[in-house]
Structures are given as structure tokens and as C-alpha cells.
């Protein structure tokens, strides 16, 4: 089949998210200007540069109790920082619990029964049980086409790695099985790895 998004796809559900998969999940923790913690997952997330290390995520919805965007976006605009918590398969239910459209001021850490840990370089909490966390300083917020689409870019200023996921000095993803987002209501996790050497090195 072929369709132009502006004309609609004619299918029961939008296939776009199911085609661009799997996507890593950025479990974004942030803090409001008045000190309230927030935690929410975003599946439009990825690393975008090595030196300095940088990441991005996109907020693609709005809430009636926010002027624009979601709580994460408002908090990051106000404080200039956020933390990306890596989601392991073991944390899937907790991650899902934090994905609801809760009122501003609801602490999703508490709602999901998650222990908080302090960040080192930014004024924010991270998920203590996450296999890794990336502390980030906001560099840009870019307004995208659409009613409530925003691209958030940050420079990584601190990296936490659980020693249990390291093997011979390298991160072994099979020790925590990263959760990935597919389309519709579907998820998967990394349970198999193979290597390929690039040509000329």
C-alpha cells in the first residue's frame, strides 16, 4: 500500500509508529521550579552526538493544566536540566505506571513505588533501580510542526552505570535487557546480540 499522511492511511490504527521500531525509551525525570519531581517515558528518544555526548527526546502531546506541552517540558524549560533513566525489562511495569496523564504536581516516583537517587551535576532525582542514567543540561528546545510537538536537546553532564551491567569493562545489555517501544501498545526487549565489524576497521 501507499498513502500520503495528509490524506489518512485507511487502517484501523496509525502504522507510522509500528514502522519506525524498535525505539529506545527515554524515561525522563525532571523537577519543577518549586521542587516537585516528575517522571515520564518518551519513546521518541535517542543519542545524537558523541563529543560532547548529547541526547534528544520529543514531547508530542499537551495537557489541559499546562500552557503548552507536558509536565516534563515545562519543568525542563524552567530549570534547564533533566535526567534520562534507561528502562530495563524488569522496570517495565513501573515505567508503564508513570505514563499516565496525571495532574501537574503528581510525583510519579511515589505513584510507581520507585526509590529516588540524587543526581550529581543537576538538581534532579533519578530512578535508583535504573541500570543507567544520563544527567543532562538543556541546550535547545525546538518547536516542531504540529500542535504540540517539541524537540528537547541536552548535553550529558553525568553518567551513572550500575556496576552489575558491566562485563570486562563494557556495558552488557543482556544483563539488563533494555525495553524498547514498538507500535500500538506493543513493546519488546533486547535478549540477543550479534556483532558485525565495519569495513576497514
Automatic annotation (TrEMBL):
<protein>
    <submittedName>
        <fullName>Flavin reductase</fullName>
    </submittedName>
</protein>
<dbReference type="GO" id="GO:0016646">
    <property type="term" value="F:oxidoreductase activity, acting on the CH-NH group of donors, NAD or NADP as acceptor"/>
</dbReference>
<dbReference type="GO" id="GO:0010181">
    <property type="term" value="F:FMN binding"/>
</dbReference>
<dbReference type="Pfam" id="PF01613">
    <property type="entry name" value="Flavin_Reduct"/>
</dbReference>
<dbReference type="InterPro" id="IPR012349">
    <property type="entry name" value="Split_barrel_FMN-bd"/>
</dbReference>
<dbReference type="InterPro" id="IPR002563">
    <property type="entry name" value="Flavin_Rdtase-like_dom"/>
</dbReference>
Amino acid at each position: 500500500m501507499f498513502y500520503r499522511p495528509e490524506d489518512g492511511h485507511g487502517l484501523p490504527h496509525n502504522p507510522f509508529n509500528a514502522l519506525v521500531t524498535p525505539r529506545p525509551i527515554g524515561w525522563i525525570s525532571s523537577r519543577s521550579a518549586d521542587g516537585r519531581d516528575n517522571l515520564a517515558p518518551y519513546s521518541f528518544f535517542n543519542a545524537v552526538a558523541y563529543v560532547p555526548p548529547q541526547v534528544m527526546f520529543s514531547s508530542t502531546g499537551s495537557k489541559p493544566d499546562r500552557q503548552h506541552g507536558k509536565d516534563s517540558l515545562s519543568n525542563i524549560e524552567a530549570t534547564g536540566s533533566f535526567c534520562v533513566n534507561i528502562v530495563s525489562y524488569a522496570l517495565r511495569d513501573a515505567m508503564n505506571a508513570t505514563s499516565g496523564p496525571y495532574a501537574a504536581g503528581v510525583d510519579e516516583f511515589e505513584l510507581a513505588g520507585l526509590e529516588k537517587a540524587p543526581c550529581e551535576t543537576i538538581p534532579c532525582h533519578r530512578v535508583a533501580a535504573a541500570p543507567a542514567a544520563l544527567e543532562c543540561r538543556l541546550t535547545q528546545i525546538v518547536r516542531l510542526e504540529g500542535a504540540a510537538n517539541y524537540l528537547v536537546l541536552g548535553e550529558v553532564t553525568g553518567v551513572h552505570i550500575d556496576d552489575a551491567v558491566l562485563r570486562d569493562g563494557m556495558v552488557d545489555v543482556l544483563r539488563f535487557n533494555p525495553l524498547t517501544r514498538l507500535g500500538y501498545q506493543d513493546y519488546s526487549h533486547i535478549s540477543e546480540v550479534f556483532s558485525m565489524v565495519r569495513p576497514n576497521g
